[in-house]
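Q: I have 380 residues here and want to know how they pack in 3D. Can you give me a structure?
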Amino acid sequence: MSTLTTSAEHLLYSADEDDLRPAVREFLTAAVPVPAILARIETEEPYDISAWSTLAYEIGAAGLPIAETWSGAGASWREAGVVAEEIGRAAAPLPYLGSAVLATAALLALTNHRAVPQLLTDLAVGRLTATLAVPVSTAPASLEAVTVTARRLELTGNITSVADLLTADLILVPSTEIDGTLSLYAVDSSAAGVVVTRGSSLDLTRPLSSLRLDSAPGTLVAHGHDVQSALDRALTVAAAMLACEQVGITEYCLESTVSYAKTRYQFGRQIGSYQAIKHRLADMHLDLVQARAVARYATSCVAVEDPDTAIAVSVAQAFCSRVALRAAEEALQLHGGIGFTWEHPAHLYLKRAKADQLALGTVDAHQSRLADLVGLSSTA
């Protein structure tokens, strides 16, 4: 039996998490307001590096799951999930998923390797921003062909659709050695032979990029079976954090739509007084409550490496992905004509919700994996 299923307290927020949330929310509200985001996505610099530096290193969000031994906060992925919720709620253009989640989770699974403690320290104190060079669509436990080869500490190959690559000082690159074994290399993004190309992305607040390596120098981080386990762990953690982000998206869409329904009048009445609108808002609220529960359970499982982790994460992703997209669609529609304009933030949340639904495994992929995990046929 799972060590977590016997207690409902794991679905609740701890006192520390409750204290963390307002600090993060107040900062994001002030530092990355919606008008600034709308203006930024029109430029060649979609990320707010100044805001990221403050959130990650002054507030300490980058080091939450990193042990105090390596200059981190010594917290857990539960606290990191709270930050992910608030980033989703703000649609903030910050490289949290790539650096503080994917790269950090991969390194935390490799702490027995000599180079890793220093890398974790650099991430925690702000000397580095990183990302893990895998296609963002990769679902947990599904990384197949590695497209980069390693020869004498030089890497060659291409990886497409990498999240948060534009801001990365350090790129963690899975590579295949001459003998066919898997390795993980740390690559300086400014090194010779490294070419980063921004692609066309649906979510303009989290653009995807392609990485080309042409005999680029790399530092070996880990080699062998440990690398595959670390990559699977990183993707699993990231999928749980993405579910938290989707909860934040849903929460914003509900709150902003309720507020609009109270102030928008048609035919002399608040639109929120019409029963049809009330029912749709009530459905959004129920979706949010359920999504929060499954996301919190997945995050709690990830935090303690519970035996239920794989199941909990696939349930959370399959459910939260649909809930966030549905909430964003409802928000856009219930805001009426203003909701369809570029000046209104509704499109930011719709695009992020749809992009998130395709990230780290589609709904179908997680449902299929879930069927396998619980012993059911995926075609049943």
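Q: Anything worth noting?
A: DSSP finds twelve helices and ten strands in the chain. The mean pLDDT is 93.
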